[in-house]
Amino acid sequence: MLDIRMFREHADVIRADHDRRGLSHDEIDEVIRLDEAWRKARYDADQHRKKRNEAARGIAAAKKAGDDAEFQRIRAEVDSIAEEIEALSEVADGHEAERDRIRMSIPNVLHADVPVGEDEGGNTQHSVHGEKPAFDFEPKTHNDLIEMNRWVDLPRAAKIAGSRFYFLKGDLARMELALQQYTVDFIAARGYTFVQPPIMMNREAYEGVTDLADFESVMYNIQPDGYYTIATSEHPLTAMFMDEVIEPSLLPIRIVGVSPCFRREVGAHGQGDKGIWRVHQFTKIEQIIISHPDHSWDAHEELLTNCVDLWDDLGLHYEVVNICTGDMGTVAAKKYDLEAWLPGRGEYKEIVSCSNCTDYQANRLRMRYRTTEGNAAVHTLNSTAVATTRALVAIMEQNQLADGRVRIPDVLQPYMSGQEMLESCNW
Questions:
Q1: Which residues of the chain have pLDDT under 50?
Q2: Same domain, 288 and 410
Q3: Taking the model in full, what pTM does it have?
């Protein structure tokens, strides 16, 4: 969430950002009103404490003088003031809780470079990479390829877990493991520490990294324990420093994490989202940087460069887009997406999301670093490196042959004992 000082000192910046997003100022004004009411209640309570302390000093004098009537009068006055302090404190707490509840829902302030647009149609192309594959045959969708090669079993998974779960088999399953190992090696070689996070989080930590009002509907809630299975490894990897003051000498902290991820993916989706493109469980390799605020925009470009270099090495054709105001969520201040070309579908589809969240998550998580003037919020950044099921789809569709086989990217072949082609599974 935004620092409360933004509302006190730079409300015009937040209002201007809401104008870019096409949002009302009502919640901003309400936060400011509640903050002023909270501060007034706190001030009044402090004034009453001073009054109580002054009155209390007369108790000892009255007692020493043996003036029982004065003693009783002062004690009653002190008790009355104490009740007023308690009432004012309750009012202040109520204003603070409501202020922060609304503040949690107000989105981050966007970077000036974010294009203005109503929806994804307003996203702008940042760059294009690789050559669009050309075929002398009608390219198949990944759905066709996995069915003819028996690489994925959806019906049997549906029997035991429901729709949008899958069994991954044979060479495609082996290539999924190769993707994981290759990606971790690639990112770790650039100075990132490999971390495997928990796959469940409590509500407090989850509210620190995302807007649960928007995200909770796609998450699995584990009851009665009160945990959520993670929807992306970004969430636990960012929250691992919750309630900590980080020594500035440790910044930037660079992490590459691997985890299974779980999403309910509620709602209707088109035919093109069948197969393994949109599923309830998948593996994701994520990049995280916890940065000094002065360096976070350089770190954002670093994350994008890592993705571009990695996907270039996979030999795939894709574009990078700059996400517009109407397609931006609550948390990020700027976001790039990588969208791979899927020839079987004839369209680009998102495979990577790369975000700078500035201090928005850090304020929620109370993550700070030491400065000579006190503790200040760090900046948090995240980027997909590879979501393996979507990467498999892009590889299958771009590297397919007329007979339905798929050429394995050169960089993955050493992880598959030098094998050059994915062969069909025999059952």
A1: 268, 271
A2: yes
A3: 0.90
